[in-house]
Every structure is written in C-alpha cells, then in structure tokens.
Amino acid sequence: MTRPVKAAVYGTGSWGTAFGMVLADAGCEVTLWGRRRELADAVNHDRANPDYLPGVELPENLRATTDPAEAADGADFTVLAVPSQTLRGNLAAWAPLLAPDTVLVSLMKGIELGSAKRMSEVVEEVAKVPAERIAVVTGPNLAREIAARQPAAAVVACADEAVARRLQTACHTPYFRPYTNTDVVGCELGGAVKNVIGLAVGIADGMGLGDNTKGSLITRGLAETTRLGLAMGADPLTFSGLAGLGDLVATCSSPLSRNHTFGTNLGRGMTLEETIAVTRQTAEGVKSCQSVADLARRYGVDMPITDTVVDIVHHGKPTLVALKDLMGRSAKPERR
Ligand SMILES: NC(=O)C1=CN([C@@H]2O[C@H](COP(=O)(O)OP(=O)(O)OC[C@H]3O[C@@H](n4cnc5c(N)ncnc54)[C@H](O)[C@@H]3O)[C@@H](O)[C@H]2O)C=CC1
Ligand SMILES: O=C(CO)COP(=O)(O)O
C-alpha cells in the first residue's frame, strides 16, 4: 500500500489554511505551521481557524503545529504561505529542517523589496534547491471562496513539468481544478502585478468611478504586466490565462480582495496610515508596487498604472491629480 502524500504548509493565514484544506480534501496528510499556540490548538481541537477563516470547519486530515521541524518531517511538498517580505528570514530558519527532495511550493504573490526578486528566486537562493524542485500555485483563488469549496481553477507552475503534474494531482479536488504550466516567471509576475492593478481599481472604485474605468484599468494593467513579462522572458500567453486575466478579474471585482479593499479605502479619502490601521491581513501590492516599479525600470518597461499606484500609496499624490496625469499622457497605438 502506498502511503498518503504528506504536505507541510508554513503559514496559518487565510490562504495557507484554505490551500491546506484543498490538499487535505485531495487526500494528503497536511500539517500547518503557525507561530501561535492558540491557533494551532484551535485547528487541532476545534477543527477551526477562527482568526482567518471564521465559521469554516477544517478537515480531519489537517493538523497544526508551532514546531517547524515537526511540520517539515517527511513532507513531499513544503508549501510557503507567509507574507512575501518575510519569506527570506523565515525560510533561512526552516531550510535546515526541510525533508530531503521535498518540493517547495510558493503560494505568495509578492516581489521582494530591494532585490526585486520573485518568490521562487528567493526560495532557490535561500533553500539552495534547484528550480526544478520549486513550484508556484496561483490564479483566481480568493481564500474564503476556496474554503467554502466554491469551484475555481488554478495554475501549478514548475520548470519541471513532471513535478508540476505531481503537485497537480496532490491538490486536485472536485472544486479545485489546477492546470500545469512551465512558465514560472509569467505565473509569478501575473500574481504579483495583479495586486498592484487591484489597488488601482480599488482606488478608482473608492473615488466613485464606474465600470468603464475598471475595464480600462484591468485591460491596460494586463498590457503593462505583459510588457514586463515579455522583457523578463515570460510567455505572453500566460497573461491571458488564469495567472493573468483570471486572477486580475477576481481581484478587481471582489470585496474579499485585500488589495482591492485597501485601494477602495484610499480612494474614499483615507490616509495611508488610516488604511493600514484598518487592514488586518496581507495586502501584498502595497509593498510590491515598489518592487514591480523597480523591475520595470531595470527592464526599461513603461508601467504607468504601477507608477501611479506608487505615487498615490508611497508619495502621497492626491488621487485626482494622479488620475489627471495618467489620462493626460501622450496618445499612442494600443499595441505598444
Ligand atoms: N488570501 C487569499 O485569498 C490569497 C492569498 N495569496 C497570497 O498568499 C500569501 C499569504 O497570504 P494570506 O494567507 O492571505 O495572508 P494572511 O494575512 O491571511 O496570513 C498571513 C500569515 O502569515 C503570518 N505571518 C505574518 N507575519 C509573519 C512573519 N513575520 N513570520 C511568519 N509568519 C508571519 C500571519 O500570522 C498569518 O498566519 C500572500 O502572498 C498572498 O498574496 C494568494 C492567493 C489567495
Ligand atoms: O490573490 C488573491 C486571489 O487570487 C487574493 O487577493 P488579495 O490578496 O487582494 O486578497
């Protein structure tokens, strides 16, 4: 008899827990790692994560620990679901504990500040594992909807297609349909930049602007994401798939999106400090907009919506002035 696939999930926030549920529903034996004892106890004794997924009953084959070595033990897949800017420090502590030959899986949709590295690059550098053992899960996957077992598709990306297929099997359930992709760069960029565009759409919503504005921002946001992706060697078709358009549409339409909500609060006139104070969870685009703008500069790519978000969020540019400047740029053909 073959043993069940074992997965360790580092991060007991909303997506770490919801993706842990997916893995458990697909038949894996899952151990979540979290920092807080009371949350691990709630998972183990009450089958609940009241802080991040209130009202959701967790499956039996999902347990939690605060001991990173216990989580790592024998894991076929090591899933990373902490805020992107904390990955490097956390992974440095976990790397010596990882099971040999484990596949590292990033759920994170951010770009590291300073280095402008994608999360899989940080994993490769810190855990010292080859790219063929690093995978990414991305797509239109709002955690609360997945935890309610509402149907969704996703992408599992890995340079080694056989590894992507193994992960696909490990997380395939009747409500979660993962597709494989070998374009890791495109998949990660799609996930990180959509958070920035989600902020822009949220700001527009908060300003009371309508669906034409939203449609324009989504489409031109996808155009600038694709431009950056092309310059970085991604497959442009990735951006019309789940990791690009799919995730962009979900994020830019949903009040469940933290990035969208963050933008809406700013657009309504809250200050950055007030907005941060009412945001309990990770809104990756707030920091990553700066790293995406860095990447754009490094690759000589024009990303006007990203620049506008950086100006509003980090330089205090008034939203009406930012909108006027964005619309007032010189006219150009659509495909350039
Ligand atoms: N929530 C969602 O719907 C989705 C989130 N993601 C991505 O997943 C990643 C994680 O997001 P969520 O789980 O939603 O965030 P969250 O804010 O719900 O949870 C973050 C978790 O990380 C922990 N944490 C915070 N700072 C930490 C630190 N310094 N060291 C260790 N742990 C720390 C928190 O205690 C919490 O358990 C992000 O990159 C996000 O973009 C991707 C798809 C869907
Ligand atoms: O990535 C997500 C959905 O796919 C979640 O978006 P937020 O991080 O904006 O909530």
Describe this protein's structure.
It is found in: Cytoplasm. It catalyses: sn-glycerol 3-phosphate + NAD(+) = dihydroxyacetone phosphate + NADH + H(+); sn-glycerol 3-phosphate + NADP(+) = dihydroxyacetone phosphate + NADPH + H(+). The chain has about 325 residues and is α/β, with parallel strands linked by helices. The chain has helices at about 15-25, 35-45, 70, 85-95, 120-125, 145, 160-170, 185-205, 210-230, 240-255, 260-265, 270-280, 285-300, 305-315, 320-325, and strands spanning about 5-10, 30-35, 60-65, 75-80, 105, 135-140, 150-160, 175-180. The protein folds into 2 domains: about 5-180, Rossmann fold, CATH 3.40.50; about 185-325, N-(1-d-carboxylethyl)-l-norvaline Dehydrogenase, domain 2 (Orthogonal Bundle), CATH 1.10.1040.10. The protein is built from 15 helices and 8 strands. It has an 8-stranded mixed β-sheet with strand order 3-2-1-4-5-6-7-8, with helices on both faces. The longest helix is centred in the middle third of the chain and has 23 residues, at about 185-205. The radius of gyration is 19 Å and the shape is globular. The N and C termini lie far apart (about 55 Å). 1,3-dihydroxyacetonephosphate binds near residues 109, 141, 142, 250 and 260.
